[in-house]
Amino acid sequence: MTGAASERVGTALSCAAADDRLSGVLFLGMPPRTLVEVARRFADGFGPLVVLGAATTDDGLWTAVDATRDGLRIVPGRLAADRPAVAAVPDLARLSLAGRRAAVSALGADVAHVERHGLSVAWRPRTRWLAACARADAARLPPHLLDRFPLRIDAAGLADGARGVPIHRPPAGLPVPALPEDAAARAVELAGPDAGARTDLALARTARAIAALRGAGAATPADVDEAARLLGLLTGPGPGSGAAAGPADPVEPAGTADAAGDGPPRLVTEPAGAVIPATAEALDPAVTEPAPLAGASPGATGGTARARPDDGPGDAERLPLRAPLAPGRGRRDTRGPSIGTVRATDLHDLAIVPTLLAAARFQAVRCPGHHAARPPHPLHLAAADLRAHRRAARPPLMAVLLLDHTAGADWPDALAPYLHWMYTARAAVGLIEVGTGGDELRARLLTTRNLLDPRVADALDRPPGRATPLAHGLLLAERLLRRELPAADAVLLVATDGRGNVPLSASRTGRLVPPVSTQGVDDALAVAARIRRLPGVRSVVLDPGPRPQRFLTARLAEALGAELRSAGDPRDTGPAGEPEW
Amino acid sequence: MTIEILPYSRIVGQRPLLRALELCFVAPSIGGLLITGERGTAKSTTVRAFSRMAHGGALPVTLPINATDDRVLGGWDVDALMRGAPERQPGLLEQANGGLLYVDEVNLLDDHVVDIILDVASTGVLVVQREGLDLPDVPVSFTLVGTMNPEEGGLRPQLLDRFGMVVPVTAEHGAAERQEILLTVLRFERECARAAADGGSPWLEEGRARDRRLMDRLAAARDAWPGVEFPPAMAALCARVAEAFGAVGHRAEAVTARAAMALAALDGRREVTAADVAEAAPYALPHRRPDAAHGDGIGWTGEDARRLAALAAQA
Questions:
Q1: C-alpha angle with apex B211: B205 to B212, nearest 5 degrees?
Q2: Which of A431, A434, B6, B304 is 20 to 30 Å apart from A227, CA to CA?
Q3: Average pLDDT, integer, range A359-365
């Protein structure tokens, strides 16, 4: 295991060294410290090393201050340079917002731009980004960011650290190998029908790099196969084994293959021995089984397991790429982390160094001969120089919507007044879905700055599944509310018929063990009771309308301490169509 | 170091996007273009290639998501200030005057930068009153082109409406097209290396020659555009189409009309036809429908195309 992981990591680094367009390599399951060691070895003889993390800021990335006898100059920063360099990200899931945005705008781009503090620079990026991420965190990464890392390598099991990783350089002076049409066709075939051009290119460039490392003038279909194995797009034995290799089969959660499609939701049961892959949401470490690699199944014959984290919607909450709402309503929030600076209008929460830098630009104008004065005298400061920290502000209002797709209601219509209110109130939105396809034993959570996120609309139109993990959905709501309170006020809207038929234990373990009886409902009520005790939460249960077992929503509303409303009841909306709170 | 961009005429596929850029060039009064689509669909490459072709080999004036206010609005030249010489440094909005302002990842821009762009785009006037500068009335006019991946969120409706046209872009999924894209990209990289080593590349030169021929056509169409007749029947059709699709405001029909005139001019004709209106409307409508304001996605379906064709047939 250690040797195989070391080989994969070493091959990926060697390919990145051989082709400057393979500029993003993501190592899944590599410890952060190991990533730094690996990056140092890679950067040796290649270019300067920059380590990025949770404290990385825009100014730290894009600009630098050059202090001279004549004053200060703003010059291009560590990333804004047309020269080979290495950016190391020990934990991509904890990279700051500025770092994530830098990766999206510069990694793999033909051209990058900096327009900051008087500096105007355009260059062709040649920085190699080496990043690591725990497999469980990969689903939280924005797809737009993940897409910038064409090489995603399974690095789990690299127990010896960076020492044993072989990094090779191609023979000097060798021209870039050609890619004949048969190799190009093989790359497109192995990338798969749903892949985009970036995957095709990643495969092709990796194949060329592999050919370059062996001193060949052209890549072959066998090189493409080897590249696909490296990227986790191909399972099966390596060359020379005589066995046929083929594209990896996607993993289907057990129980979905025989979906009837119509009729009332059915409890999902799994055949004995099957394992449902865990999602990124860690429920309770004490009871959650270790997540198997996606693609591993009993009886698989060797080869590299599929290592590419899902490029699809995923179940976990994604990290944002947009800056939070600028604090502009009354008192500035000083509790969040500093994510930049703004011009200050008072002396509250001043950013000292940016203030001094702002003042430094005007010294020669305010005081001719200032820089040559001996002895030196202090900076001449004006009110216009003052800069304050710009903090990651919490939204003033959080709206959490738990949407039960199996309730048999026309939710888009019923929820319209509430959605309109969320939009006009500019509420941050937490959307929890229960009872959809995919991993039917678990709810899925999406958080977004506002209702304009297209994923919210997609969620409203999703078809129902066969199981209703209502308890898990409420558990996700409880966690989200605990995290956001007390910095924000919160409204919890639970749109459901109350028929939760999946116990929490099934959601945690991924296995439903019959008989279930009323355990699902009991678990939901227990979580609801905890939510009731959270301060600052206003809860509403939206009932879909007349049907059997309607008492379940009344019980849920009572447990939550919530108001019970009926979908489509005009008494619950005002003249403007917004809900009457 | 020279930054090489793939010649515009070498771009594979994406015909609607190429057409939209050409229409914006022929008729700048269309008011810009928003390109929205999934990852890896060459949105940025296409815009840069078009700008290179259309604006004398220059890259477009680009507003990146890391931009600070002083670079957007303009401020002092910091190096000159340090020497004691207060010299002004024009901002990006002023640099783009008369040309193209490109905003990559427009849906990731900070809100206050969006507000600045909205303000200038709506008034046509740039006001710079900051850090001791006082320029109350700098007229600016530019074609705003933005690219975005909708997975990361939508745009505020006010900013959405500032883009005259929108074109949703999807990846090419056919194996043959994907293979052609792959081989073209790799060929481009190889030819750039050859040009750097040997001082030139016949493949790149042929692409640039094709670009120059295309530019001649576009420039001729631009000159002809003001003289294209727009019959009252076509104005009525534009209005009916905007009403049928529930377009918010009145920009949809105006943009449709301008784009239809540009299509006629590109085709060498002197009068707009219903077919021109039918081809132009899908660029002007999707982001002005009520659903788009609430993030229901911007798209144009087969059903939309059938409805539009039926309306055009009645004209």
A1: 90
A2: B6
A3: 85
Active-site residue set of B: 251
Q: State whether A326 and B38 contact (CB < 8 Å).
A: no
Is B110 a residue whose pLDDT tops 90? Answer: no
Residue for token pair 């293959």: A257
Position A311 scores a pLDDT of 47
Q: Which two tokens stand for residue B256?
A: 């449709």
C-alpha to C-alpha distance for A466 and A262, rounded to whole angstroms: 9
Burial (0-12, 13-18, 19+ Cβ within 10 Å), B263: buried
Q: How far apart are CA A399 and CA A43, in angstroms?
A: 46
Mean pLDDT throughout A375-382?
A: 83
Single-letter residue type at A330: G
Residue A280 pLDDT greater than 60, yes or no: no
CB of B164 closer than 8 Å to CB of B256: no
Give the B window 139-158 contacts with A, CB below 8 Å.
Answer: 149-156
Residue type, A93: A
Give the pLDDT confidence score for residue B297 in this predicted structure. Answer: 62
Radius of gyration of chain A, Cα coordinates, nearest whole angstrom: 27
A529-548 mean pLDDT:
87
Residues 6 or more apart whose CB falls under 8 angstroms from that of A13 comprise: A25, A38, A42, A130, A165, A167
Inter-chain residue contact A184 with B105, CB threshold 8 Å: no
pTM of the model: 0.72
How does DSSP classify residue A222? Answer: H
Interchain CB contacts (distance < 8 Å): A and B: 200
Integer angstrom CA distances of residue A261 from A253, A257, A465, B294? 16, 11, 8, 30
Share above pLDDT 90 across residues of chain A, in percent, rounded to a whole number: 35
The answer for residues whose C-beta is within 8 angstroms of residue B295's C-beta and 6 or more apart is A451, A452, A453, A454, A456, A457, B153, B154
The dihedrals phi and psi of B115, each to the nearest 5 degrees, come to: -60, -40
Query: How far is it, in rounded angstroms, from Cα B38 to Cα B168?
Result: 9
Chain B residue numbers touching A175 (CB-CB < 8 A) = 193
Please tell me the distance from the alpha carbon of residue A291 to that of residue A289, in angstroms, as a whole number.
6
**Separation of alpha carbons A172 and B129, rounded Å:** 56
pLDDT-derived band at B130, boundaries 50, 70, 90: confident
Tokens representing residue A304 in the block = 């590299």
Tokens of A378: 């202090």
Least confident window among A82-86, A334-338, B191-195, B207-211: A334-338
Angle, in degrees to the nearest 10, between helices B274-284 and B15-26: 100
DSSP 3-state assignment of A237?
coil
Interchain contact, B173 vs A194, CB within 8 Å = yes
Per-residue pLDDT, averaged over B30-57, amounts to 91
Using alpha carbons only, give the angle A149, A154, A155 rounded to the nearest 5 degrees: 105
**pLDDT given at position A260:** 34
Number of separate helices (H) and strands (E) present in chain A = 16, 19
The residue in chain A having the minimum alpha-carbon distance to the alpha carbon of residue B83 is: A364
User: What is the average pLDDT value for chain A, to the nearest integer?
Assistant: 78
Which residue matches tokens 């005259």?
A: B164
Integer angstrom CA distances of residue A406 from A255, A257, A290, A414, B232: 17, 19, 30, 15, 52
Asked if the Cβ–Cβ distance from B179 to A181 is below 8 Å, we say: yes
CA distances, B100 to each of A195, B61, B92, B96, B106 (Å): 32, 7, 10, 6, 15
Structure tokens at A130: 């080496």
Nearest CA in chain A to B92: A115
User: Are the Cβ atoms of B71 and A115 closer than 8 angstroms?
Assistant: yes
Q: Is B184 on the interface with A (CB under 8 A)?
A: no
Say which residue the tokens 């003042």 belong to.
A359
Token output for B51: 């700008």
How high does pLDDT run on average in chain B?
90
